Amino acid sequence: MSHLTRYEFNTARRGTRWLLSSPQRLHAAVLSSFPSELTQSAEDGRILWRLDSRPHQTLLYMVSPHRPDLTHLVEETGWPRIREWETRDYDPLLTRLAPGQRWTFRLTANPAQSRRRSETASRSQRFGHVTVAQQTQWLLDRVQKHGFAVVEGKSKEPDVAVQGRHTWKFTRSGQTVTIATVVFEGTLEVTDPAALRFALINGIGPAKGYGCGLLTLAAAR
């Protein structure tokens, strides 16, 4: 069984500001929502999360194979006396996916490619795509294997837009890690329900542990 969770941060609290300043801290906080034996990938998916920042609201979305307990987040970054979190069964949406359906979507991803830095380099490295055109093409190149197509908009261009970009830098094991994230929004059409279902619970692209890869759907208007 899969679960979709929505949690709102109280951005006036010091704990929130500290947590939101690092995807590594957020990653640890998300994993702390489960007993250690439930943090590994399972047949019915892995733990995915995404931070959605709006002018007056900061939301954490999670998809997970097990129901989370966000008590620690509420106590440190929420409104302990008046609000908790919302978790609902994700399976009804997953099971009703069918070819031809259209949905609006939102995805935070890390568009990147692996290549060698030079001809003499022995190992390949991951390099992030820089321009909006490169980042958009990165997504379009992957939609088919994830069971959907991006529909054409009124101008006959793919109905997808980059709505936000951010570069994170943090230290891991003594080294600086840089992750460039992109928020995509658009309209998709289901072509392979099983493949799309897999993408929804296992994510798209790299850096899934740091808030990338979570695709969510909403009814198309």
What attributes characterize this protein structure?
Alpha-Beta Plaits; 21% helix; 221 residues; 6 helices; single chain; alpha+beta; 4-stranded antiparallel β-sheet
Write a brief caption for the model:
The chain is an alpha+beta fold. The chain is 21% helix and 36% strand. It starts with a strand and ends with a strand.
Walk me through what this model shows.
With 221 residues, the chain is of the alpha+beta class. It folds into two domains: 3-91, Alpha-Beta Plaits (2-Layer Sandwich); 97-219, Alpha-Beta Plaits, CATH 3.30.70.1210. Helix content is 21%, strand content 36%. It is built from six helices and eleven strands. The protein has helices spanning 14-20, 23-31, 71-77, 91-95, 132-140, 193-202; strands at 3-8, 48-54, 57-64, 86-89, 102-109, 112-116, 124-128, 148-150, 160-172, 175-190, 215-219. The strands form three sheets. Strands 5, 8, 9, 10 and 11 form a five-stranded antiparallel β-sheet that branches. A four-stranded antiparallel β-sheet has the order 2-3-1-4. The chain has a two-stranded antiparallel ribbon with strand order 6-7. Strand 2 (48-54) and strand 3 (57-64) form a beta hairpin. The two termini are 28 Å apart. The model has no long low-confidence stretch (mean pLDDT 92). It comes from Prauserella marina. This is CRISPR system Cascade subunit CasE. Pfam families: CRISPR_assoc (PF08798).
